[in-house]
Amino acid sequence: SDSGSQKDRVVTEEEWLQKWEMGNIGFHKEKGHPLLKKYLDVLLNGRSGLRIFFPLCGKAVEMKRLADMGHSVVGVEVSEKALKEFFTEHNLPYCEEPVPEISGAKKLQSTSGNISLYCCSIYDLSSSIVGKFDGVWDRGALVAVNPRDRQRYVSLMITLMEKNSSYLLVTVSYDPNKHKGPPFYVPESEIKSLFG
Q: What InterPro entries does the record tag this protein with (predicted)?
């Protein structure tokens, strides 16, 4: 594969949690991601009241924006700190409840009910727990999952998508022999083979 020396690289859940604890979150975009602004019409496709999924959401500001537009937003993130910061930074009241199907998981939900953020591993989710989605904003998830887990990740994402779902994916392009990642390099050929 042309992912060079990255294919065996593994970043543990603990390492991600540590990034959040240390505030080492250069990947967070405080003003939102310019590509979502640019391609929002493609994601929404003229539809309103959608269910939109944010895999590995961190504290993405777009979750509030899309909820304010009348969409229902669901995110998943291992860092509880990230999720709590999201609600605090947007002055959004929320409640916390356990997720009975997932040991140790929590759901943080805005009291308005249109933002539900799951604190757990993405691989613990299933459509029976979170339902299916009309849109997915994958701005840093596929490039963050360990290369050896990509197939598992994409298979899960496909099960979470409605028939007419839109999937907006951001990747990064660089020489994978010069950077160990994350974000990982995912060549277009691999994206095509993963998503079919």
A: SAM-dependent_MTases_sf (IPR029063), Thiopurine_S-MeTrfase (IPR025835), TPMT (IPR008854)
